[in-house]
Amino acid sequence: GAESYGAKRIAYYYKTKRGQIAEVVTQQGEGYIHSEVVKKNEHNEIFGLHNKYTTCNLEHPHFYISAGKIKAIPNDKIMSGPFNLVIADIPTPLGFLFGLFPSPKNQRSSGVIMPTFGESRARGFYLSNGGYYLALNDYIGTRITGDIYSLGGYKVTVDNTYIKRYSYRGNLNISYDYFKNDEADVIDPNRSTNSLAGLPPTQRTAFINWSHSPVQKPGRGRSIPQPARGASSCGRERGVLR
Predict the structure, then answer these.
(1) SS3 per-residue string spanning 16-71
(2) C-alpha span between 88 and 90 (Å, rounded)
(3) Pairing between strand 90-96 and 116-120?
(4) Which of 22, 101, 141, 165 has the most crowded Cβ, counting Cβ within 10 A?
């Protein structure tokens, strides 16, 4: 179908509809799973051994979650045992006893959100937009994410969306950002003073944004006001333009 696999060796049994794949790379949702050995059952579920789960599409990813065992249910979720985050082939202490990563095709699902890795002139290396998505029900969802920076500072965001079919929809976003800019960073021999020119001082910022809008029922359009009797529509348009 729409799924693609890259593997070194595949053994598939037609009668049992089970298979074993060696050195496989498969895409699940927005992420990629690199596994040394994968076993697939008749329900299309895959069980991986010695895995790397990442959103980086490179053959050798820059960052990934390292997990000994992974179970992936296509178009649903990915579950793992104990895992930790690896950046540039360097293991970090960031991890947990188990993992649950959503990979739905057409519906929402609760689970861990993979962070992205990068570098900023003002804040150094960072992990961004990592956290957890909580699908409370079919109408309300909460996304809790955070950023962390090597030069200090962090950001926490809580994003809530809600919808009532044919009535209204809205979003409530709350964020807290701590930007750190110490003088000690200026005398760092690896960083020039010019590179920090124009940066704001250390500051803390909080934002609350709320948007709410009605949703029209199907087949109900907005009415267009008609010109008054005896007045031409062209005359009304000219009046608006002036």
Answers:
(1) CCEEEEEEEEEEECCEEEEEEEEEECCCCCEEEEEEEEECCCCCCCCEEEEEEEEE
(2) 5
(3) unpaired
(4) 101
Radius of gyration from C-alpha coordinates of the chain: 26
Amino acid identity at 119: E
Q: How high is the pLDDT of residue 240? A: 39
63: pLDDT strictly greater than 80: yes
The 3 state secondary structure assigned to 153-206 is CEEEEEEEEEEECCCEEEEEEEEEEEECCCHHHCCCCCCCCHHHCCCCCCEEEE
And the tokens for 212? 């709410």
| Residue predicted with more confidence, 199 or 221 | 199
Q: How many residues does the chain have?
A: 242
Alpha carbons 15 and 239: distance in angstroms, whole number = 78
Of residues 97 and 216, more confidence is placed in 97
- Report how far Cα 137 is from the mean position of its chain's Cα atoms: 19
CA distance 150 to 155: 13
Q: What is the DSSP letter of 125?
A: E
Q: Which residue has the tokens 């519906």?
A: 107
